Amino acid sequence: MDIFENVSIVKKANVYFDGKVTSRTVLFDNGEKKTLGIMMPGEYEFATADKEHMEILAGTMEVLLPNREDWISIEAGQTFEVQAHSKFKLVVQDIADYCCSYIKE
């Protein structure tokens, strides 16, 4: 889906890592929540509350998922999921555009 219709957007930006990662929250009528964001090149670690489905729209990165020892390569057009209540690491090689969906379980 390239266009979200009939949504609300939270005006205040989510800013992490001194502005190297930013996003905006998109809220849907059915209670679904997504964030649309940009990650600058760098190394990051994130913690999750809900399960997350990450869609990479542009850029490349290496991802270390919870309970894994091997990094996986992700590029534009690919996705990955992270279980709820966990941490994951990213090494972003070039500017990454992403859409994160939060999944309540």
UniProtKB/TrEMBL annotation:
One of its GO terms (cellular component) is cytosol. PANTHER family: PYRIMIDINE/PURINE NUCLEOSIDE PHOSPHORYLASE, PYRIMIDINE_PURINE NUCLEOSIDE PHOSPHORYLASE. Pfam families: Ppnp. The gene is ppnP. Its EC number is 2.4.2.1, 2.4.2.2. Catalyzes the phosphorolysis of diverse nucleosides, yielding D-ribose 1-phosphate and the respective free bases. Can use uridine, adenosine, guanosine, cytidine, thymidine, inosine and xanthosine as substrates. Also catalyzes the reverse reactions. It comes from Propionispira arboris. It comes from the Bacteria. This is Pyrimidine/purine nucleoside phosphorylase. The keyword Transferase applies. Keywords: Glycosyltransferase, Transferase. InterPro entries: Ppnp, RmlC-like_jellyroll, RmlC_Cupin_sf. The keyword Zinc-finger does not apply. It is an enzyme of class 2 (transferase). It catalyses: inosine + phosphate = alpha-D-ribose 1-phosphate + hypoxanthine; thymidine + phosphate = 2-deoxy-alpha-D-ribose 1-phosphate + thymine; guanosine + phosphate = alpha-D-ribose 1-phosphate + guanine; cytidine + phosphate = cytosine + alpha-D-ribose 1-phosphate. GO terms for molecular function: guanosine phosphorylase activity; purine-nucleoside phosphorylase activity; thymidine phosphorylase activity; uridine phosphorylase activity. Belongs to the nucleoside phosphorylase PpnP family.
